[in-house]
Amino acid sequence: xxxxxxxxxxxxxxxxxxxxxxxxxxxxxxxxxxxxxxxxxxxxxxxxxxxxxxxxxxxxxxxxxxxxxxxxxxxxxxxxxxxxxxxxxxxxxxxxxxxxxxxxxxxxxxxxxxxxxxxxxxxxxxxxxxxxxxxxxxxxxxxxxxxxxxxxxxxxxxxxxxx
Length: 163
Hints:
It is built from five helices and seven strands; from the N terminus they run E-H-E-E-H-E-E-E-H-H-H-E. By secondary structure, the chain is α+β, with helices and mostly antiparallel strands. The protein has one domain (3-109, 141-160). Strands 1, 2, 3, 4, 5, 6 and 7 form a seven-stranded mixed beta sheet that branches. A hairpin with a 6-residue loop joins strand 5 and strand 6 (98-102). The longest helix has 13 residues, at 138-150. It starts with a strand and ends with a strand. The mean pLDDT is 90.
């Protein structure tokens, strides 16, 4: 069973880029050479993106590998496959990794248990709004938006997991 997704390295210092390629290669089991471009949203940093194919759960393994460098800003998507939801995983320096299931059209899905917990633990309207915003990834999306726009029109590399 195969799925596919995209790994976006929104910003990384040049010295870290070879390590990122090695980490991705270690997960996918193939040699990886990304096309690095200057990241205008963070002078001195580089950005790259790659489409990948692999087994369900590959996005999580990629995120674990990239999380080794807390200064790297990344986003990884995985499409739904039979028996597995899609997901989106994001990291911004200084924040915890944010992860959520994704519908086929890219919407964040919130589970019933998450909603119940938010309602139970956040009594005021403002607290509830803030908790729901976090659950939906709104703050991390806001932090990534400038980095995403700086990469529009960039070339994409294709990576395939060895089976």
